[in-house]
UniProtKB/TrEMBL annotation:
GO biological process: DNA replication; maintenance of mitotic sister chromatid cohesion
GO terms for cellular component: chromatin; chromosome, centromeric region; Ctf18 RFC-like complex
Protein name, per record: Sister chromatid cohesion protein DCC1
Xref: Pfam families: Dcc1
Membership in a protein family: Belongs to the DCC1 family.
Keywords of this entry: DNA replication
Keyword Chaperone: no
Protein source organism: Panurus biarmicus (Bearded tit)
Length: 392
């Protein structure tokens, strides 16, 4: 392209009825460079926090398998990626100076000839989203660990997963994945992440609670060393320690000895699951009696320990209770509500909350979710929620 002169620029301003006095003296004359196809350029809009991550030399990773919607992850957050179209053509001009930079540098040349290196009509927009962690449990549940003597473990054809494998398969940031592994009580066995088979987990827990009982230890002061000493001949020591970490809070006393304070709610919950998993429905009052008798001496069972694990049916006579685990429900909001309204037509907010709490976005409340996906009505003076759409 021929270089423009100042006279030509002024003539163009006059034709456009623009007053040069109101403009900066510097002029960008743009021309398309030979490589200005723009096809190989992608624009990504970053919030300041993510920009700082990149500037500090850290990586952002795009995760997802071929059939999944791509997400972008920093070290500790997950973002949905969506293409945003713009009505304005976006031009890439290397070394382009902004008005602020031109103002700060009065010596800048009067006419700046710039080549356009590429252009785009859209950009990737990021929206903070919930990490997609359902798959993590699903992968690990393909092959739960049944203990060192299990024949199944020697012959299993299922894949086993290292941290690296999970990072490439799960659409969540590294910190979110590692946190979730803790939440689901996964443990590393020979370098692979495993979830204990529920029956094996109960066997380990039973060994520990029986030992506490026979030694008359306080539930808030269970010594690690003595547990490993006594139970090490029955099960691997690292499994005994894992079960103490899962069902207790670790602390060190003044003498430097490691103790565990057993978590009553979690132990009661696990024992309830064991009792409920073999029955479709259980008479509520009978269940409460058997449950209290089954937990370690000194522990008190309460129905609120079963939030997101079991549901009481108050409408049946006599009242019943049945297993309904939040982790077995769909991850997608609409599918979750469809599935809940398929199980029960009308829900009170108290009953439905444990089953939708995990769907709340960063600053969202359960009330806002219910407003969006359910409609409310009054039933015998109690507010209940039912589906906004017919459930097939």
């Amino acid at each position: 392209a021929a270089m423009r002169s100042r006279a030509e620029v002024d003539a163009t301003l006059q034709t456009a009825k623009l007053n040069p006095a109101e403009l900066l003296p510097a002029v960008h004359c743009l021309s398309f460079g030979p490589q200005a196809g723009g096809g190989e350029c992608c624009l990504l809009q970053l919030e300041p926090g993510l920009c700082a991550e990149l500037e500090a030399g850290r990586s952002l990773v795009i995760r997802g398998e071929k059939d999944e919607h791509a997400v972008l992850c920093s070290k500790d957050k997950t973002y949905d990626m969506k293409i945003a179209d713009t009505s304005n053509m976006l031009l890439f001009v290397p070394g382009c100076k902004t008005p602020e930079e031109l103002n700060a540098d009065p010596a800048s040349c009067n006419i700046i000839h710039s080549q356009i290196a590429g252009f785009s009509k859209n950009y990737w927009e990021l929206r903070r989203c919930r990490p997609k962690l359902k798959k993590l449990r699903k992968l690990l549940m393909e092959d739960p660990y049944e203990g060192p003597d299990s024949q199944k473990d020697q012959t299993s054809t299922f894949s086993k997963y290292t941290t690296e494998d999970l990072l490439s398969l799960i659409q969540a940031s590294e910190e979110e994945i590692l946190h979730q592994l803790q939440v689901i009580d996964a443990c590393k066995i020979e370098g692979y992440w495993r979830i204990l088979d529920f029956d094996y987990e109960m066997k380990l827990l039973n060994h520990v609670t029986q030992l506490i009982d026979s030694e008359s230890w306080s539930l808030s002061k269970v010594p690690l060393c003595a547990c490993l000493e006594e139970l090490g001949s029955l099960e691997p020591r690292e499994m005994i320690e894992h079960i103490l970490l899962s069902y207790g809070r670790k602390y060190v006393d003044d003498a430097g000895e490691v103790f565990f304070e057993m978590r009553e709610d979690k132990i009661c919950r696990a024992i309830a699951q064991m009792l409920l998993q073999n029955a479709v429905k259980f008479n509520l009052s009978e269940f409460e009696e058997v449950w209290q008798q089954s937990v370690p001496e000194g522990m008190k069972t309460r129905l609120d320990q079963l939030q997101g694990l079991a549901l009481v049916d108050k409408s049946s006579r006599p009242e019943t209770i049945f297993l309904l685990k939040v982790e077995d429900l769909p991850e997608d909001n609409q599918e979750r509500f469809n599935s809940l309204f398929g199980i029960r037509q009308k829900w009170t907010e108290v009953d439905i909350t444990p089953y939708i709490q995990d769907l709340c976005a960063e600053k969202q409340t359960v009330g806002a979710l219910l407003t969006k996906y359910a409609r409310s009505s009054m039933l015998n003076g109690v507010k209940v929620y039912n589906s906004r759409r017919p459930i097939s």
